[in-house]
Amino acid sequence: MADDRSGSTMARSTLAFLRTKIVSGEWPINSRIPKEPELMELIGVGKSTVREAVRSLANLGMLETIRGVGTFVRSTSPISLVLTEYMLDYGLEEVLVFRRALEIEAAQLAALNRSEAHLAALRASLDSDLRADPDVPDEIERGTTPGQFHHLVFDAAESPLLGALYSGVMAAVRRAMNERQIVFATGQDLRRRDHAALLGAIEAQDVTRAAHAMALHVERDLVPDDGDAESLTLSLRARLLEEHAAEQADLLS
């Protein structure tokens, strides 16, 4: 009986340790957590205890394990799992509309509430994206750690509830992407230019410009797959590239 209590205590303390790392932000959303052997050494517990804790947090929607890649932080609160399950009753178009509304609100709040620390994190994320290996397929890059820049915008918004809602929406979006129901409609270069324009608006604390920059980006970032993803993506990319220069000029004028 004593051993059972000891095992139960270790499981609870391991779960609490991992959750604290996530909730405190020490392990940011979309970051990869330490590998299993590292966690075993760090916490001082066995493999089964670590796996049980990771599985529990994955069931709450706070972690996601991608086979062959690693385990990633997806939310700081279990509320995202509730929202994800709730959104299964709605069509993809409605999910994407809700995502758009959250993104625009976050951009406006970020322009109002951002600190120098927030700006530094956004700049670092943008710089990291610019240095990304061009030979790595965009789908792989964004499939392993999707939306890091966007989550940092939500951090800058200083609204934990808004961030939790966004995590729930993005979990539903990732599920649809895995099933090829949603596809990326922008390439790396266009995405980076969109992010740079958004960062400029947030730095300038220009609420209207931030909202417009985010709306422009979200409208062309993810789209439902109509069954011919390749032709959809190529045609949309071509049209958006033609429109991009004029739209960015309007935003900056």
From TrEMBL:
Pfam families on file: FCD, GntR
PROSITE patterns named among the record's database cross-references: HTH_GNTR
Any GO molecular function: DNA-binding transcription factor activity
Transmembrane segments annotated in the record for this chain: none
Domain HTH gntR-type: residue ranges: 8-76
SUPFAM superfamilies linked to this entry: GntR ligand-binding domain-like, Winged helix' DNA-binding domain
InterPro entries cross-referenced by the UniProt entry: GntR_C, TF_FadR/GntR_C, Tscrpt_reg_HTH_GntR, WH-like_DNA-bd_sf, WH_DNA-bd_sf
Source organism, top-level taxon: Bacteria
Keywords in alphabetical order: DNA-binding, Transcription, Transcription regulation
PANTHER family per UniProt: REGULATORY PROTEIN GNTR HTH, TRANSCRIPTIONAL REGULATOR, GNTR FAMILY
Name this polypeptide is given: DNA-binding FadR family transcriptional regulator
